[in-house]
Amino acid sequence: MSKKSLFTFFVTVLMIAGLLAGCAGNAAPEEQAATGKIKVFGAFATPIEEPWDGVVHDALLKAQEDGLIEYTFTEDIGYTGDMERVLREVAEQQKPDLIVGDAFVNEEAVRRAAAAYPEIPFVFGSELGPVTPNLAVFDNWIHEPAYLSGMIAGGLTKSNTIGVVAAVPIPEVNRLVNAFIAGAKETNPEVTVLVSFINSFFDPATAKEQALAHISAGADVLFAERAGVIEAAAEKGVFVFSNMSDQNAIAPEWVVTGPVWNMTPTIEYVIAQVKAGTFTAMDLKDFSMYALGGATLADFHGNDAKVPAEILDAVKAKEEAIKSGMFRVPIDEAQPGAVN
């Protein structure tokens, strides 16, 4: 082979090698997007000890344990203007593939940050709607198990008085309280439900104080929409229904059951969208309801033995009707009165 032919041969080999390397280099990011972990940041206004944010945080921890994501978070950001700063710093410095958190009082801050970084999907708890192209919303649509809990509470009370301590009279809180009241009145039309709000999303001391006031007013069953109520129930020896997660461990003898919010279906759906490059700004409401596994009743941990059998039968029948679509729990987001 002549020197010229040999030179041409080596140039051709190098060109082919370069093309192959280029093809491999272009394929790597696609393969990583399809099979690799994505970076997720959690932004929470309250401490994750607070059940609402705690449920979202637990679902993200599970996704991390399942090898789906790399997860970091900041909690207790508050409502004094720090949320937008935190989100902008994270977007600039960490460049996550997805940001998840709670908006509500921080609605405007979250929406400004999302608009500033349209390439990053934002998925936030919100009472408002999604915004194209990158802000999806979710909420705790657990009014269905709240209704079932109310049915049980109506059958348990001996004084015909039930106490509810809730956060703030906003739509997503009101619908849980109203569903609980409606369920109680289904099984006990004579029941009186006392309702109070702590005007905070996390103030266990105030919640406990208000729960004790309801007990003093005759309530022998409580709905702990907020943290702090279960401790009052245990102290006074009255039945109580937890909220958001299974909280039986706080007072095993007195926590009967309660609405459970399972955020895993929502989180897994969003992760799959981000990995596939198909993220859509949408309302993720349905993933938090019974039909898709986002809502259920907490385990009774044996306390179902304390509930009249006919009440349990009625609750089971209603639960099946909800699952089959034959019964829809009313969505009532009006502020309940102090006495219902």
Question: Helix/strand/pairing class, anyone?
Answer: alpha/beta
First-to-last CA distance: 99 Å
What is the number of beta strands?
11
The CATH superfamily of the largest domain is identified as Response regulator
Helix-strand pattern:
HEHEHEHEEHEHEHEHEEHEH
Strand content: 5-15%
- Fraction of residues in helix: 40-55%
What is the residue-mean pLDDT, rounded to a whole number?
Answer: 91
Cα-atom Rg, whole angstroms? 25 Å
What do you see in this structure?
It is built from ten helices and eleven strands. The protein is α/β, with parallel strands linked by helices and 340 residues long. The protein folds into two domains: 37-138 and 263-290, Response regulator (Rossmann fold); 143-258 and 298-324, Response regulator (Rossmann fold). The longest helix is centred in the first third of the chain and has 33 residues, at 3-35. Mean pLDDT is 91; it is low at 1-33.
Describe what is shown at a glance.
With 340 residues, the protein is α/β, with parallel strands linked by helices.
What order do the helices and strands come in, and which of them pair?
Layout: H1 3-35, E1 38-43, H2 51-65, E2 69-74, H3 82-93, E3 98-102, H4 107-116, E4 122-125, E5 135-138, H5 143-156, E6 161-166, H6 171-187, E7 192-197, H7 204-216, E8 221-224, H8 229-236, E9 239-241, E10 259-261, H9 264-276, E11 295-297, H10 309-324
Helix pairs in contact: 3-4, 5-6, 5-10, 7-8
What keywords describe this structure?
five-stranded parallel beta sheet; single chain; Rossmann fold; 15% strand; alpha/beta; disordered N terminus; 340 residues; 2 domains; four-stranded parallel beta sheet
